[in-house]
Amino acid sequence: MRQQPFSAIVLVLSFTLALGVSSKGRDKQDDDTVRVFIFAGQSNMVGSDSKVKDIKRFPPFAGLEETQGEVRFSYSIGRDGKMESKGWVDLQPVNNVVGPELSFARKVSGAIDTPIAIIKCAAGGTHLGGDWNPDEPIGFKMYPLALSLIRSSLAELNKQKVKYRIEGFMWHQGENDMFNKDYMPNYGKNLKNFLAKWRRDLKTPKLKFYVGELCTKTIWGMDLRPRMYAISQGQKEVCREDPLAEYVPTSHIGVEIGGGAGLHYHYGTLGQLQHGENYAHAYLRTIGKETKVSRPLKKWPYPKGEKIKLFILAGHRNMEGERAFVQQLKELKGKESLLKDNSKIAYKYNLGGGYRKSEGWEPLGPVDYYDTFGPELSFAETLREKLTEKIAIAKFTHSGSQIIDWTPEGSMAADRNLYPRFISFIKESIKELSNKGNEADPVGIFYHLGENDMSFNPYRKQAAERLQAIITQSRKDLAMPKLKWFVSQQAPTDDKRVNHLDVVADVEKVAAGDKAIIHLKAFDLPPQEKKLVIDTMGIIRLGEFLADSYLKDSRTIRGKK
After folding, report:
1. Structure confidence by residue, pLDDT tens digits, 464-500
2. Same domain for 259 and 332?
């Protein structure tokens, strides 16, 4: 380990090397300059409710439980009983908790040839308006603590004659400010001051900040929606006005599954691993090092004039495929073909509420942003075995959404409204097929009912009503009065707090009054490890179930004819 003694004398050394500027365009003499990243915030920066032992459950992140000896790490984590490195050590998990710095470091180190170092100061339940206030810190006085940690850590590098510069500041905080009547409306103002004071105190006028979005997938994303929205608006306002501040979407990442009803407040293990990669992607994009995979359809798979059956897939975390991993798919005998791009099926997608989009039409294949995949793969394979017609698939999902976000009226959290984007996505998909010389035949919308809604009393109560509103308005806006909706529903949350609401019967009632709504009960999926989320085998089965349900429905219609 690279443990070094602390020396107070070096605190007065100059920080002129710590200019927060991009490495883009630097010459090779700069390759050995250590890029220093600062991670700061509250519990979701700490890594609360995550477990190092669980990393092995998530194949894309295998090995991150091990020490990363090539990355320097200096930290002070926690409130009363702080865990401190007392100097530089090798990057490793602290207190068996998974922080975002672990996956961030591996992703960045694999993309650039220069060494990196991470300084982390975080404590759960702390406020920007109080604890992190740079002018009048109170409570745990996080700002002066973090400043002292950063200065002492950089001074130690100076003592070792290590060249460095501060490259970026990763900030994830805000949940606790929403509970304070003074802090909540002033979050943007306080954040602007926070950024300015760091640049002043670290003598880094061009220091880049990466501000992480609060996670709307948690219970707080529903029962505290107005408060979460107020904080997010303050964050976004600062990022719009400050060219060196970037808003980093995180609402789509995994969230810990708690007891009882199943919803939680923290990302947990999987979410933290993805959280770090989000920051890494944002930073690498800043310096022009983002890895982009081009997946063009080299040859348009449909003859001109041919009618194409267009299947529209939509939904939340399980339609997106939150916990279905390609690494596990590789191990399943007989499913190898799902891993290969299928250039005979055109695929268009918008995932994570726009976090990842296709470049036009691409070949169908695994494309999700964390080595995950959705039911579209097994869905298409099952259809191809039975259909002679040509098919295309358009998928629109946001794993961090609730049903209210899909309704035409949306909610007061206006920038979370998905309905206008969803309708535009469908219209664009149809138009693009037409522009290619084909006639699009929209078979229907395959919508997997919101999972998180089932665990929160008010949302479960209104689920069927909101679903009806989406269906009714979509048919009007798409000018398709007979458009079919295949609504799949997994077994809803089983908990005494919500079981008195029979949401299955509610959806059945909606479907019973509309012959073009097909209610699909996906109750026989393989046993799942966690509530709400469906794993690799379950996602494969869900895709097959949706396809089989469509084929059964189409045979029924032909039989009637």
Report:
1. 999 999 999 999 999 999 999 999 999 999 999 999 9
2. no
CA distance 332 to 313: 24
CATH code of 350's domain: 3.40.50.1110
pTM: 0.93
Measured on CA atoms in the order 85, 89, 93, 98, is the torsion positive or negative? positive
pLDDT score for 561: 54
547 and 459 together in one domain: yes
Q: Is residue 4 part of a domain?
A: no
- Kind of pairing between the strands at 342-351 and 362-364: antiparallel
| Tens-place pLDDT, residues 529-561 | 888 999 999 999 999 999 999 999 987 766 665
Residue-range definition of the domain harbouring residue 507? 307-560
Q: Is the domain of 90 the same as that of 21?
A: yes
Checking if the pLDDT of 17 tops 60, the result is no
For residues 347 and 232, membership in a common domain is answered with no
Euclidean distance between CA atoms 463 and 222, whole angstroms: 13
Whether residues 457 and 552 fall in one domain: yes
pLDDT band at 29 (very low <50, low <70, confident <90, very high): low
Same domain, 330 and 268: no
439 plus 348 within the same structural domain: yes
Query: For strand 34-41 and strand 89-91, is the pairing parallel, antiparallel, or unpaired?
Result: unpaired
| Statement to judge: residues 240 and 353 lie in one domain | no
- Alpha carbon of 36 to those of 5, 151, 297, 560: distances in Å? 19, 12, 40, 69
Ramachandran category for residue 315: left, alpha or beta (phi over 0 → left; psi -120 to 50 → alpha):
left
DSSP 8-state assignment for residue 525? P
DSSP 107-156: HHHTT-SS-EEEEEEE-TT--TTTTT-SSS--TT-HHHHHHHHHHHHHHH
The per-residue pLDDT for 3 is 41
- Supply 363's token pair: 């070949």
Strands 89-91 and 116-122: unpaired
Close Cβ partners of 279 (under 8 Å, ≥ 6 residues apart): 100, 104, 170, 210, 212, 248
Place of tokens 């000896």: 69
Asked if residue 301 belongs to a domain, the reply is no
The CA-based diameter of the chain, rounded to the nearest angstrom, is: 89
In this predicted structure, what is the pLDDT of residue 465? 98
* Element housing 170 (H / E): strand 164-172
Number of domains the chain is built from: 2
Record the tokens describing residue 280, joined without a space: 């890494």
Contact partners, residue 122, CB within 8 Å, separation at least 6: 39, 40, 41, 42, 43, 45, 46, 77, 99
CA dihedral 406, 408, 411, 412 (to 10 degrees): 140
- How much is the mean pLDDT over the chain? 93
